[in-house]
Amino acid sequence: MLQLQKTALTAEEEAYQHIQHEIRLGRYAPGERLVPEVIAGRIGTSRMPVRGALRRLASEGLVQIRPNRGAVVRGLDQKEMLEVFEIRSVLEGLAMRNAVLNMGPEHLRRLISMLDQLEQGSGDYLDWTTAHREFHEYLCSFCGQPRLLRQIAELHAVVEPYMRLWSSQPGRALRARESHQELIDALATRDPDRCEAAMRRHVLNTVPALSEFLQQGH
């Protein structure tokens, strides 16, 4: 019995990881129907784990389950996008505030190396978006607060498809080094207040350009 439960949970987790990954990459677009039978066939499982994964994704805001109509990828309007970024700014500001005193020179050097990768990947938006998320995840990880980190990760997942589209625009200046170097400079001061303020500013500075992009009908 225990083995059967473990297998079922593992299958649901695999389905969850698959669907979330495809949404984050933009392969399942906002408004697209998610048919459990089709997804189950793709990943070699039954419908039940997929249904469980869809319920979990619905609780995280990535999927909407409509009565008698099934599940669809949930899109965000401009108001919801602003709300997500405002929440992100507060939570990531808190994470950076609590992370700074747990970080040393070697961690700042690692962030600088990641920033180099971020800048080099700016010609390929898929690489850039992944590198950008990994930079933020690494920095925030030093807060040592798993619940906070899970909430931040869920918010990143919600906006990542839009970040990928936005960062793919031809000729768009990403300002990756300048904006992220400000975070590293704040960490170097080891001042929690300054670190929190820098991260809040950093996250909210994305909003105007992303909002303009969404207004263009994307």
Question: What does this protein look like?
Answer:
It is a single chain. The chain is mainly alpha-helical. The protein has two domains: 11-73, Winged helix-like DNA-binding domain superfamily/Winged helix DNA-binding domain (Arc Repressor Mutant, subunit A); 78-216, Four Helix Bundle (Hemerythrin (Met), subunit A) (Up-down Bundle). Helix content is 72%, strand content 5%. It contains ten helices and three strands, in the order H-E-H-H-E-E-H-H-H-H-H-H-H. It has a three-stranded antiparallel beta sheet with strand order 1-3-2. Strand 2 (63-66) and strand 3 form a beta hairpin. Helix 2 (36-43) crosses helix 3 and helix 4 packs across helix 7. The N and C termini lie far apart (48 Å). Mean pLDDT is 85; it is low at 1-6 and 122-126. Residues 9-76 form the HTH gntR-type domain.
From the structure above, extract its key features.
single chain, 218 residues, mainly alpha, Arc Repressor Mutant, subunit A, Four Helix Bundle (Hemerythrin (Met), subunit A), three-stranded antiparallel beta sheet, 10 helices, 72% helix, 5% strand, disordered N terminus, TF_FadR/GntR_C, transcription regulation, DNA-binding transcription factor activity
Q: What topology does this entry show?
A:
Blueprint (H helix, E strand, L loop, with lengths): L1 H23 L8 E2 L1 H8 L3 H13 L3 E4 L3 E4 L4 H22 L5 H16 L4 H17 L4 H22 L8 H14 L2 H13 L2 H9 L3
Antiparallel strand pairs: 1-3, 2-3
Helix pairs in contact: 1-3, 2-3, 4-7, 4-9, 4-10, 5-6, 5-8, 6-7, 8-9
